[in-house]
Amino acid sequence: MSADVPPDVEAVLTQLFEEAQKEFESGDPETGVEAVTSAATVVRTKLPEGELRAQMLHGCERVEALAGEGGNTAVAAEYVAATERRLDEAVSD
Q1: Contacts of range 48-55, beta carbons closer than 8 Å, 24 or more positions apart
Q2: Percentage of the chain surpassing pLDDT 90?
Q3: Fewer C-beta within 10 Å: the chain N or C terminus?
């Protein structure tokens, strides 16, 4: 069953997750966290209540915690990639 994610919302989230992953991989956790925080705002305001919304918010919160001060940006990059994959799976089901 496909999630009810408008194409423009999917595009914005994908762009933000990709930007965050790139920034974490290049060693810029501040910009990566900013992108994830923006993604969380989009999720809160544009996705309906439900499992996908909860999973996306959980992913964003975990990434923010992982990349926090002195955090592990490599793990944060992998976690944000997994969150993006979950979005892709939800819209393609």
Answers
A1: 48/4, 50/3, 52/3, 52/5, 52/86, 52/87, 52/90, 55/83, 55/86
A2: 89
A3: N
Query: Cβ(38)–Cβ(16) under 8 Å?
Result: yes
Domain 7-92 belongs in CATH node 1.20.120: yes
Q: What is the pLDDT of residues 13-52, one digit of tens each?
A: 999 999 999 999 999 999 999 999 999 999 999 999 999 9
State the helix-helix crossing angle for 29-46 and 51-67, rounded to 10 degrees: 160
Helix (H, G, I), strand (E, B) or coil at 76: helix
pTM of the model: 0.93
First to last CA, the chain: 5
What are the domain boundaries of the chain?
A: 7-92
DSSP-based three-state secondary structure for 87? helix
Q: Are 77 and 25 in contact (CB under 8 A)?
A: yes
